[in-house]
Predict the structure.
Amino acid sequence: MPRGKKPYFTPEQDVDIARRYEAGETLRQLADSYGVSDVPVRAALDRQQVERRTVTDYTWQDTPEARAEIIRLWHEDASVKKISRLVRTRDVNVSRVLREAGIEARLGGQHHRFSKEQTVVLVEEFQAGVSLAKLAKKHGGNPITVRGALRRAGVDTDRKHPEFWTPERIRWMCEQYESGRTQTSIAQELGYSKAAVNRKLRHLYPEEIAKGENHHSWKGGRTKNSDGYTLVTPTPEEALLCPPMANGYVLENRLVMAKALGRPLLSTETVHHIDGEHANADLGNLQLRQGNHGTGVVFQCQDCCSHNVVAVPIADPVTLAM
C-alpha cells in the first residue's frame, strides 16, 4: 500500500465484506450496501486474500422464472448489457433467451453484431431516411454499432445534406423579388434567414441591391454593440490591419491601436480604455494589454501622474490619537 494511503474500510468491515462475498453476494451488491463503488470492495477482498469470482462463475440458473425476469426487463426498455448486469449472467445468455422467446434482440457476446435479419431491416429503414440515432433507439445498441452493421452490408452511411438553393427555389425567389416582395417576406416563406436571402440576391442582382453607403439605411458605418463599444466599417486598407468580424464591422478601439502600431493586433492582445468609457476610442485613452484585463479603470496619482499606486493598510485610529 502506498505510503500515507489508508484503507477505505475498517478491519471489521473487511472481514464482513469477505464473509458476505464468500456467501454469494456480488461486488455490486456489497458496494451498494456500503454506498461506494466496486473499487474499495475489491481492495477489501484483496486484503482478506479472497479470490474474486469471474463472470462465468455466477450461478445463473436457466429457469422459467429467470427467463421471465429477462423478458420483463426487456419490455421495460433495458438493453441486453443492462439485463445481463442485473441478472448476473453473460450477454449471450440474455440474447439467447430473448431470441427463443421470439424477440428480435441484438446479438450479445464478443462481437455485439446485429443478426442478418435485423441488418436487412436496418438497411431498408436507413435507405428510407431513418437516422442512425433513431435506428439505435428502435433496435438496440448505439449509432456506432448501427453504422458498422450498415457498412458491413455495403451501405454508404455518409449522408450529405441536400443543397438548399436548388434551381427551382432560386427561380421562385427571383420571381418574387422582381414582383416587388420584400426580402423579409421571401425569407419567411422559404423558412430561411433574411441574411442568407440577401446574400443570394446580392449575388444575382449586384447592381440593384445596394450596400454600404449606397444603402437606404446607411448610418455612416458606425454603430454600438450591447457592451457600449463602437463598431465601424473599415476601408479595404483598414481591413488589412484589423480584419472585420462576421457582421463586417471592427471594434474602433482595436482599429485605432492597430493603425497606431502599424500592424494587426495579436489574438492575445486586448485594448483597454483608461477612463472606463468604451465609446471613447481616442488613442490617448487606450492601452495595449496582454490577455483579458477585465473591467474598471486604471488608478493614477493626481500629483505626479504615476501609475505606481498600491494599497496600504488603513491606520489604526488609536495609533493616530497617540
Q: What stands out?
A: The mean pLDDT is 79. The CA atoms of residues 297 and 320 lie 32 Å apart. The beta strands are 222-224, 230-232, 250-251, 269-273, 286-290. Residues 11-22 form the longest helix (12 residues).
